[in-house]
Specification:
Helix content: 40-55%
Shape: elongated
Order of helices and strands: EHHHEHH
Number of helices: 5
Distance between the termini: 43 Å
Number of strands: 2
Strand order of the largest sheet: 1-2
Length: 79
């Protein structure tokens, strides 16, 4: 019998963060309203926010938004 070789999948380099977790962290930081206002200023980003359940921890647009409102994206997008 031929040996079955399984290709190991590489870790994607990111993890998914549930939006509820992000919302809780934004509320705890006192910047929830500021973050939503920033999202609403870009209709396409706001619609994408509404359409998904999770955010990738390496999402550059999300990371930039959190930095712009004075938050550490590593904390907001932590596991």
């Amino acid at each position: 019998m031929a040996a079955i070789r399984r290709k190991l999948k590489k870790a994607p380099g990111y993890h998914l963060v549930d939006k509820y977790t992000i919302i809780k962290r934004l509320e705890e930081s006192g910047k929830f309203e500021i973050a939503i206002s920033a999202l609403k200023s870009n209709e396409l980003l706001y619609q994408k926010w509404l359409a998904v359940k999770e955010i990738k921890s390496n999402d550059e647009k999300a990371r930039k938004l959190f930095e712009e409102i004075g938050l550490d994206p590593n904390i907001i997008l932590d596991k």
